[in-house]
Amino acid sequence: MQVAPSLLSCDFADIKNEIKTVNSADMLHLDVMDGHFVPNISIGIPVVQSIRKATDMVLDCHLMISDPEKYVPQFAKAGADIITFHVEATENCGKLIDTITELGVKPSLSIKPNTPAEAVFPYLDKLYMVLVMTVEPGFGGQKMITDCLEKVKVIKAEIARRGLDTIVQADGGINDETLAMTVESGVDVAVLGSAVFAQSDRNSYIEKIQRM
Ligand code: DX5
Ligand code: ZN
Q1: Residues 18-35 pLDDT 10s
Q2: Residue 91: which pLDDT band, with cuts at 50, 70 and 90?
Q3: Distance CA 130, CA 28 (A)
Q4: Cα 56 to middle of ligand 2, angstroms
Q5: Number of neighbours of residue 60 by Cβ within 10 angstroms
Q6: Which is the closest atom of ligand 1 to the Cα of 62?
Q7: What backbone phi and psi angles, to 5 degrees, belong to 63?
C-alpha cells in the first residue's frame, strides 16, 4: 500500500525538517481548508509554493474548500502534482477535472462520509485518483468511520469492472488499530496524519505500512 503522510499533524514552524522525516513516503498530503467548506482553516497557496521549493516529493493537495474552480489554477501554479477536490463542493465536477488535467496536474475527486460511492462513477475514467474520506473532513486525529471502507471496495470493484487504472485513497483515522481493515479494503493509498507524526522513527513506520 502507498503512504501519504498528512502534514496537518506536523510542526509547521519546522516544516522543511518535518518533511525529511517522512521522505520515504509515496506522496505528501497537503490539507487545504477554508473555514467554509469545513469548520477549520489550515494552509493555502503560499505554503504549497514554499513546500514545492523544499522537496521533490509528489505533492498531493486535498482541497477542502468551496468554489474549488476559483483556486485550482493557483494550486497548479504553486506546484501541486495531484489536486483533489470534493464532489460536494461544485456542480461542475467534469469540467473541473478537465481543467486540472489541462493544467498538467493529476485530477482526483473526494467524497465525504455521507456521500455515496456512486457519486464518483460518472467521472472514474477521467480521474487519476478517488479520495474516500473515512472521517468528516476538517480535523486530524479523529476516529475512523469504518463503514466508509465499504465504499472503497465498491469503487475498486467498479474500476476493475471497467478496466480502468484509477487509484483509490482513504483519509482519516488510519492508525495501528485500523490499518489491517484499511489494507483489507484494497485501498491503494493510505493518508496518515496523527499516527505518522506521533512516531519517533516516522520513515521506518511508513516503510512498514508500504510493505502491507
Ligand atoms: C482531515 C484531513 C486528513 C487528516 C488526517 O480533514 O483531510 O488528511 O490530516 O489526519 P489523521 O490521520 O490524524 O486522521
Ligand atoms: Zn486530507
Answers
A1: 999 999 999 999 999 999
A2: very high
A3: 16
A4: 20
A5: 28
A6: 7
A7: -85, 105
